[in-house]
Specification:
binds triphosphate; Inorganic triphosphatase; 8-stranded antiparallel beta barrel; Hypothetical Protein Pfu-838710-001; mainly beta
């Protein structure tokens, strides 16, 4: 099925008191040069195998829920291509999709390990017209939907993109080097380097 999404960096952290948090770890079975992604994901206590094709706003996605045993069988094959994050799911205020009644859901990902302090927010739409109409709230920052470096597979393989103020790529130990502090982005929980 089609997945229609727009993705943004954060200008600031919103109030998440009504949002739900789930731990996510995901790893990629395919290398970056493959046009199709094959992703293993643990979300809370559930496990998924997902195939994704295409890039940008509209992507093709197939997903199946799998067992923990099946997940563990393939997880070792994702070494070096993994992402850990906390995903906050909540509702946007009505109106930002042009319909005063409708409420869109957001997914705010707080990346961990070598990808901290990256945070991104995604909104999924029923169709392309709704995606086009979308007016992001003021806590959304720069849109990165079309920037391949912010795809989770690219982040898993290369780490934080250089030149974005978020980091200069993954260090040899895979822990990332995201110590830049000039991003102007929020970075709650980031340890003070001093
Ligand atoms: O939750 P999804 O399926 O949108 O996937 P993601 O982990 O946000 O990854 P991507 O960078 O492929 O949208």
């Amino acid at each position: 099925m089609k997945e229609i999404e727009r993705k943004y960096l954060l200008a600031r952290r919103p109030d998440l008191s009504a949002a739900q948090a789930e731990a996510v770890r995901q790893g990629y079975l395919t290398v970056l040069s493959d046009s199709t992604e094959l992703r293993l994901r643990q979300k809370g206590t559930r496990y998924f195998l997902t195939q994704k094709g295409g890039e940008g706003r509209v992507r093709e996605e197939r997903e199946a829920e799998i067992t923990q045993a099946q997940f563990e069988t393939f997880w070792p094959a994702t070494a070096g291509r993994r992402v850990e994050k906390t995903r906050w799911t909540g509702q946007l205020l009505p109106g930002c999709d042009g319909d005063p009644e409708a409420r869109l859901a957001f997914e705010l990902d707080v990346f961990e390990a070598g990808l901290a302090p990256l945070e991104m927010v995604e909104v999924e739409f029923a169709d392309e017209a709704a995606a086009e109409r979308f007016e992001p709230p003021d806590w959304f920052g720069r849109e990165v939907t079309e920037d391949k470096r912010f795809g989770n597979r690219a982040l898993a393989v290369y780490g934080l993109p250089a030149g974005t103020g978020l980091g200069s790529g993954r260090s040899d130990d895979g822990s990332g080097s995201g110590s830049d502090s000039d991003s102007g982005l929020t970075s709650p929980g980031q340890p003070d380097p001093a």
